[in-house]
Write a structure and sequence with these properties.
It comes from Clonostachys byssicola. Zn(2+) binds at residues 144, 290, 294. It is found in: Membrane. The chain has helices spanning 11-45, 73-78, 87-114, 120-146, 151-180, 185-207, 217-229, 232-242, 244-251, 253-272, 289-315; strands spanning 5-6, 9-10, 46-47, 66-67. It is elongated and about 80 Å long. It is 70% helix and 2% strand. The protein is an all-alpha fold and 326 residues long. It contains 11 helices and 4 strands. A two-stranded antiparallel ribbon has the order 1-2. The chain folds into 2 domains: 5-47; 62-315, Rhopdopsin 7-helix transmembrane proteins.
Length: 326
């Protein structure tokens, strides 16, 4: 006996298709349910501001997305795989540190073969900058990753974080002042010494517990802005005595100014806690002031590296290697 046809198909084939559709529907429901369950589980692993211990309460305008505090490094590493309000802070600087290491390796292989006149000093000044960038970005990523470990570890990591910022700012000025004031060694030494001393002062502020209180956030940010602005003095001086175009050729002054402006812009947002101050809870996971600051730091470092590469190229041309000054 033949099967009765249904909708132009044999009844048996039609039944098989219905079973197949039903099976796919059930599978889809299972996947959706599992996904919803995973999201609910992940949300339960995250805390709100009111659930945080006192030492974790840093920014009241970030309302949700906090990781649970557990004195376990494995728990900390596992948290990197989940989305929370520190994810952007961690990964932006972790990836930045990896790129800085890669850039340093590449430049080391390129500098000597590119110009016979390239010296060990070129290597050293670039190492100061890239070393500072690696320390800053690496320490920052480490601090934000370990923030959910314990109060003691978080305090220690915060000190490293600020020390890394000092290393990056000071390291950034080394190649800029070396190439910009190469023909004026006395000025170069004086300005480098001044910036190093200011960097040491900021380092002390970073490690002394008295200055680490949340209510002194603006003071800390001001100290670091001051360190960044200290580079404006040699830029203005160099422009007066040698002219803007000369400094543009020697140290890519336009990019130096732009990279400094990025630091200041990010620091101002960080200190004012905007935009989350105006929209509490809206920027918990994406777009908070601290995250914008992190992105500004990475962009500034990349900009400065490009500028110093241009300065290096000019320094090893016939015109750039001559000191024709009054």
């Amino acid at each position: 006996m033949k099967d009765v046809q249904m909708d132009g198909l044999p009844a048996g084939e039609a039944r098989l298709r219905r079973v197949d559709v039903s099976t796919k529907s059930i599978a889809s429901q299972i996947v959706d349910t599992a996904g919803q369950g995973a999201k609910k589980l992940e949300s339960k692993l995250l805390l709100c501001w009111d659930e945080l211990p006192h030492w974790r309460r840093d920014n009241i305008f970030i309302v949700t997305g906090y990781r649970q505090v557990k004195p376990s490094y494995s728990h900390t590493l596992y948290s990197l795989l989940h989305l929370h309000n520190e994810s952007v802070n961690i990964w932006s600087h972790l990836i930045g540190a990896i790129l800085a290491i890669s850039s340093g390796t590449y430049l080391y292989q390129v500098i000597h073969p590119r110009y016979e006149s390239a010296s060990s000093t070129d290597i050293v000044v670039f190492a100061c900058f890239l070393g500072g960038a690696i320390l800053c970005l690496g320490m920052s990523a480490t601090f934000h990753a370990l923030l959910c470990h314990s109060e003691e570890v978080a305090r220690w990591g915060n000190k490293l974080d600020y020390s890394g910022i000092v290393a990056l700012i000071v390291g950034s000025y080394v190649p800029a002042l070396y190439y910009g004031f190469f023909c004026r060694p006395t000025l170069m030494t004086s300005y480098l010494s001044l910036i190093v001393l200011l960097g040491i002062g900021c380092g002390i502020v970073s490690w002394v517990d008295k200055f680490r209180k949340p209510e002194l956030r603006v003071f800390r940010a001001s100290m670091f802005v001051g360190l960044g602005v200290s580079g404006v003095i040699p830029v203005i001086h160099g422009t007066i005595i040698d002219g803007y175009q000369a400094l543009e050729d020697r140290m890519s002054i336009s990019l130096v100014i732009f990279h400094g402006a990025l630091y200041i812009f990010g620091a101002v947002l960080y200190a004012s806690r905007w935009p989350e101050r105006s929209f509490p809870g809206a920027f918990d996971i994406w777009g908070s002031s601290h995250q914008i600051f992190h992105c500004c730091v990475v962009l500034a470092a990349a900009t400065h590296l490009y500028g110093m590469a241009r300065a290096f190229d000019y320094h090893h041309t016939i015109m750039g290697s001559q000191c024709l000054i009054d």
